[in-house]
Amino acid sequence: MNNKSRNKEVVGKALRAVPKHLFLIVMSLISIYPVLWVVSMAFTPGESLAVGWHFVLDFIPAPNAPTIQHFISVVHLQVIGGTFADWFRNSVIITSVTVVASVAITLPAGYAFSRRVFPGREVTMFSFLLPTMFPGVVTIIPQFLIFASLGIVNSYLGCIIPYTVGSLSLSIFIMKGAFDSVPKDLDEAAKIDGASEFRAFWQILAPLTLPNIATVALWAFMGSWLDWALAHVMLQSNNLWTLPLALYSLIQPTYTYYGTFAAMSLIMAVPVFVVFMIFQKYLVTGLTSGSVKG
Amino acid sequence: MVLYPFAYDIYISFTDMNVYHIKKFGLVGAKNYAYIFTNAQFLVILRNTVVWTFTNVLPTVAIGLALALVLNTKVRGKNIYRLFLIVPWAMPSFITLLVWRAMYDYQYGVLNRLLEQFSIAPINWLGNCTWAFVAIVVANIWLGFPFMMIIFSGALQSIPTELYEAASIDGAVGFRQMRYITIPLIRPTIILGLLLGSIWTFNNFNSAYLITAGGPGICTTIFITQAYNLAFSGLFDFSLAAAYAFIAFIFLFFPGLLWTRYMGVTKQVA
Q: What confidence tens digit (pLDDT) does each residue in A90-139 have?
């Protein structure tokens, strides 16, 4: 191959890469644009967004004089009888109980569905799948009515129970899949060494599924930390609100507190974003393990 | 714990329970269903739900697939692109949807400001029937494509490279490799994406509610938001809402069944 044709090839390759990069750049910009805007809003002084910001390069929003005033006002936020400290505490309590409960339930349940044969196994598993097909809102109405008659509407329990149950359907299958992928030889080896079934489960199998346990915890965390629809129905007193309800309250039909809203969005989203990025690999496998295996 | 609410939902959908007689309610037969099916709103909501599902799922899958295909070739900065492209999925949807709602704001939203930059008249995104629908669809496609991109990337990576090498030797390149190797091998994932996408979109309460709350009027109301509105915003007609929820459930039961069969998730380990 002489030099001329090689040069031609290099140029041709570079030219062919242009549309690819164009497509990727445009899509990436669309992806992060709302985030750029929230960040800009969060640091723009004033609540209305009428003034105080401009476009960089004609399309990237940026504050004229950045301020952290909104982050301070989030912490001092109050809505008749409820304070930011209350909502933060409520969110933390409800979320942590939900996470612990759903791991505690799905770990043994996943094991049982993977290793044991018992009557009604298929039916039980199918019943756990139903809510996967029909996300939370369908069940909010009956749950609200049932909890109203039990008197646990407007309490932590009124949220914790539905969140835990709601996370089970997907999580049980993640855990079942996790135990499925642990070779059965391990159970048998442990048995030969004289370990009881529980010991084999607890000391050998469960530690091997740690990444999946993390996924289950993450699903439960996101489901409860960010839920609005159910909390909106269940938690009626302002001091029992969770953070999403407080965030939603900043958007009024007639007026939106954009600055505080953006700052609070960032405070709530950043931890989720970081954890998500760390665990994203595992998140997909739980859902698609049946088909992508190849 | 899991099944009881479903059974209870079906039961109250045959009663006359609402806020006026929450304790003392009686069976009224199929009255709620008769009311729903004879009401002109039903057809509008049905049409909205169907249009909503299709206009979301098809572009989401198409964009996700296109991105996965491009990212599966040799491109510089692949990892950085991937990081950016995953952002809509990694950010909490509850928050990003409210952000989209703010972006659509007529006076102060960034979208109309952007149009202004290019001397285009502002659009009344959330006040106009058609635009409101476009608005929620666009926001939901934005939310949905990264997931599709990820599952298609996974599927593409599992195709053995030997297949492409063999094809090149046999003189099949470019489009023909795509047609005879790539597409057939990732077809199961495409079907999975379409199925999961339809199920999630059909019942996607957050996307359809947080931006428009179903309005203006019932322009952007789908089954699931209608059920929620009937039960919890002002009317408190629980039985009618339960009937709506149950109708939504029936619509999804068969795709859902298909999904579980397809994945074989209930099978025991060999």
A: 888 888 899 999 899 888 888 888 887 778 777 777 777 766 665 556 67
A287: nearest Cα among A210, A173, A181: A173
Residues A252, B186: Cα–Cα separation, whole Å: 46
Q: Do B95 and A55 touch (CB under 8 A)?
A: no
The reply to whether residue B67 touches residue A27, judged by beta carbons under 8 angstroms, is yes
Confidence of residue A29 (pLDDT cuts 50, 70, 90): confident
CA angle A75, A77, A80 (to 5 degrees): 145
Q: Are residues A138 and B249, on separate chains, in Cβ contact within 8 Å? A: yes
Q: With CB atoms and an 8 Å threshold, state whether B102 touches A261.
A: yes
A285-290 long-range Cβ contacts below 8 angstroms, 24+ apart: A285/A177, A286/A170, A286/A173, A286/A174, A286/A177, A286/A212, A286/A215, A287/A170, A287/B151, A287/B196, A288/B151, A288/B154, A288/B189, A288/B192, A289/A177, A290/B262, A290/B263, A290/B264, A290/B265
Say if A31 is an interface residue toward chain B (CB within 8 Å): yes
Average pLDDT, chain B: 77
The whole-chain average pLDDT of chain A stands at: 77
Complex ipTM, two decimals?
A: 0.76
Q: What amino acid is encoded at B233 in this protein?
A: S
Q: Which of A122, A276, A287 sits opposite B90 (nearest CB)?
A: A276
Pull the structure tokens for residue A144.
């609200």
Residue scoring higher pLDDT (B35 or B115):
B115
Distance from CA of A109 to the nearest CA of B (A): 13
Q: Which residue of A has its CA nearest to B70?
A: A20
Task: Render pLDDT for A42-99 as a digit per residue (tens, 0 to 9).
Answer: 887 777 766 667 777 767 777 777 777 777 777 777 777 777 888 888 888 888 899 9
The answer for A 90-109 residues in CB contact with B (under 8 A) is none
Beta-carbon separation of B85 and A35 below 8 A: no
C-beta atoms of A142 and B6 within 8 A? yes
Q: Centre a 10 Å sphere on the Cβ of residue B165 and count the other Cβ atoms it contains.
A: 10
Q: Smallest CA–CA separation between A2 and chain B, in Å?
A: 24
Q: What does the pLDDT look like over B222-247, one tens digit per residue?
A: 777 777 777 776 666 777 777 777 77
What domains lie within chain A, and their CATH numbers? 3-67 (no CATH), 72-292 (1.10.3720.10)
Section B254-263 average pLDDT:
68
Residue of B nearest to A219 (CA): B92
Query: Is residue B99 helix, strand or coil?
Result: helix
Q: Please list every residue in chain B whose beta carbon sits closer than 8 Å to the beta carbon of residue A292.
A: 151, 154-155, 158, 189
Given this model, what pLDDT does residue A100 score? 92
